[in-house]
Specification:
six-stranded mixed beta sheet; about 550 residues; Rossmann fold; mainly alpha
């Protein structure tokens, strides 16, 4: 009897079946019939015995899977023996009280002999099926029915019966093997082909040490779906997206082995972590090991692109419109790095040595920042400013803040840190003050009324950007001023993006803020609470609220 142990998903069944097919093709198998039985959910030995018979196939059957034809060949209609036996046994009094499963398993089990039998998923058996019963049946089939037995299981998940298994194992098993493929072997089993995306996926899975074949295949499906979405951007954008997808997918699908989602989401750039220890989530043995793994993997921090990918992994698919904005930013950063040198490369002068090279570090980072500030995130601006201040370069820090704020041409939302996913990590007071001043100084286009009126008939990118930047209060004031057909048209235009399948994030933001404005209006009075109900806004009526006595 052969026992093959290994964790779930590492390919025990695949490896065993592949080897059996090789031996069968070479005519080097001593038994001419084979039966594969998964014990998953099997609750008693009668079910197991019946399953052994039902799944018996000729050893030379290419896929070794049971079907109607293989079952028909076992129940040979020419002899009629299998049909007569139940009739004969039904005349015996005690047989009449058997269940149909008991009777069928008893009858059919008589034909089980001289074959190879594989029992899989021992650790997932039903609660009423004991390990000792399975091992006893396996021993009986080997000793009395001349069968060769193979057990496949994850012995780490046997629970309370682990000791029983270990005690009986040495009595009934001749050979016990641990199936533990390397990450390279697991990737070779799980993935086939030579596409660029597949090669990236394989390399990334190997770098993380992922061995679960089912997980690797799920990651491959997700990664391949990114190809058509990101085809218009620089190849490095797809490479980065696949890399993040493999990492976050591993954390979602194997939470017991991968770094936690909370740890990954909280991963900040070294620019920030090395300056402010409070932002470094690597305290403790496990997080420290995760930090070392991610450093080797090349994953420096989580950004908004990564968060969008994580949401897609959880949903099971990626939306092009959701990824587009972040992919474009990554594309632009790649273009800038090719033209003027990478901002991250300049920071490596700081991270990758213990040289007393303050002046060289300041010069390199300052120079690269001025060339690429259009592609630098607010979080990295904050980290750069704090480094300059720590190195007694307050004047340089002030210049970089001014350059950044004055030179970025994004809308008001960009300078509203409350709308930024990592706003809590932007802590430098001068950076925050500069963002607030820029946001407050940006006047809303006075012709937004005309934009809203025309929104139902069409729009351009500038219109969407402008309207997405309007505050909820500004929407409220516009709605309150309008009347009649103009009010109806403005509301129809602002709320339409809720029903557009491929609406972009700025479009959805317009509808979100319009709904919030209606909720504010509804809270003003009972009559307005009733008016906004037609738009799906529910507000408690002031006149129906409980009164204080």
């Amino acid at each position: 009897m052969l026992c093959i142990r290994g964790k779930w998903g590492v390919g025990k069944t695949y490896g065993w079946l592949a080897r059996l097919k090789e031996e069968a093709a070479a005519k080097d198998v001593s038994r001419q019939r084979y039966s594969y039985v998964s014990l998953f959910g099997q609750d008693n030995l009668q079910q197991v015995k019946l399953a052994v018979f039902e799944n018996t196939v000729p050893i030379d059957k290419p896929d070794l899977n049971a079907d109607v034809d293989t079952l028909a060949s076992l129940l040979d209609p020419k002899s009629g023996a299998w049909r007569r036996l139940p009739n004969m046994l039904s005349g015996v009094p005690f047989v009449r009280n058997w269940t149909s499963t008991d009777l069928a398993s008893t009858i059919t089990f008589l034909g089980v002999k001289d074959q190879i039998i594989c029992f899989d998923d021992l650790e997932r058996r039903g609660k009423n099926l004991r390990i000792v019963d399975v091992l006893g049946l396996a021993s009986y089939l080997r000793e009395r029915r001349n069968c060769k037995i193979v057990l496949l299981l994850n012995d780490e998940q046997l629970g309370d019966e682990t000791k029983d298994f270990e005690r009986y194992l040495e009595k009934v098993v001749d050979t016990s093997l641990l199936y533990d493929p390397s990450p390279n072997e697991a990737a070779a089993i799980a993935l086939s082909g030579s596409s660029p995306v597949l090669q990236i996926t394989a390399a990334r899975c190997q770098a993380l040490g992922i061995k679960n074949i089912r997980v690797i295949r799920r990651l491959d499906r997700l990664a391949r779906s990114l190809g058509p979405i990101l085809t218009e951007y620089k190849p490095i954008v797809l490479e980065q997206a696949v890399s993040s997808t493999v990492l976050f997918g591993w954390a979602v699908f194997q939470p017991d082995e991968a770094p936690s989602i909370d740890y990954l989401v909280g991963k900040r750039p070294p620019i920030v972590e090395d300056i402010d220890p409070a932002t470094n989530p690597s305290a403790g043995p496990k997080p420290a090991a995760w930090r070392a793994l991610l450093d080797e993997y090349g994953y420096t921090h989580t950004d908004e692109f990564d968060l969008a990918l994580l949401n897609g992994i959880r949903a099971g698919y990626f939306r092009k419109d959701v990824l587009a904005t972040h992919a474009k930013e990554a594309h632009d950063r790649a273009v800038a790095a090719e033209a003027d040198g990478s901002f991250e490369a300049a920071w490596r002068l700081y991270h990758d040595s213990f040289d007393d090279n303050r002046d060289a570090v300041v010069k390199a980072i300052d120079s690269s920042f001025r060339k690429t500030f259009q592609y630098i995130t607010p979080l990295n601006l904050d980290g750069t400013v704090r480094l300059m201040k720590d190195l007694n370069q307050a004047d340089t820090a002030a210049e970089l803040i001014a350059l950044y704020v004055q030179g970025r041409n994004e809308g008001r939302t960009f300078f509203d840190l409350d709308q930024y996913s990592f706003a809590g990590d932007v802590t430098d007071p001068d950076v925050r003050a500069a963002f607030k001043a820029k946001h407050d100084s940006m006047n809303v286009d006075k012709d937004v009324r005309a934009m809203l009126l025309g929104l139902k008939g069409g729009w351009n990118d500038e219109t969407i950007r402008t309207l997405a930047d309007l505050s909820v209060e500004e929407y409220r004031d516009i709605f309150k001023k309008e009347r009649d057909a103009d009010l109806r048209r403005i509301l129809a235009g602002a709320l339409q993006f809720d029903s557009i399948t491929n609406a972009s994030e700025p479009m959805r933001e317009i509808s979100r803020r319009a709904r919030a404005a209606l909720r504010m209006i509804g809270a003003e009075s009972p009559i307005n609470a009733r008016r906004v109900r037609r738009y799906g806004i529910t507000v408690a009526d002031p006149d129906t609220a409980p009164q204080n006595e």
